[in-house]
Amino acid sequence: MKIAILGGGLTGLSAAEILSRNHDVTIYECDSQLGGMAASYLIPIEGKSYHVTKTYHHLLIGDDATINAISNCGLNADLNKKKVFQGFLYQGKVHGFSTPMEILSFPIPIIDKIKLAKFTLIDAKKKDWSSIEHLNAKQWIEMTAGKNNYDVFFEKLVQNKFHCSPEEISAPWLGTRFVKESSSFLKKFMWLKGGIIQLINGYEKKIRANGGMIRKNLAVESVSDTNNGVKVTHKEGEDSFDCLISTVSPEIFLKLAQNVPPELKETAEKVRYLSCICATVVVKGIFTDRYWINVLDRNMHISALFQHSVLYEDSAPEGVSIFYISTYLMRDEELWSMDDESVMDIYLSEVNMFFPGFKANVLWMNIARFRDAEAIYEPGYKNIKENYGNLYFAGIYKIFPKIRNMASAIEEGEKIAGYITGEKNV
Ligand SMILES: Cc1cc2nc3c(=O)[nH]c(=O)nc-3n(C[C@H](O)[C@H](O)[C@H](O)COP(=O)(O)OP(=O)(O)OC[C@H]3O[C@@H](n4cnc5c(N)ncnc54)[C@H](O)[C@@H]3O)c2cc1C
Question: Among 22, 201, 347, 370, which is 20 to 30 Å from 276 by CA?
Answer without folding.
Answer: 201
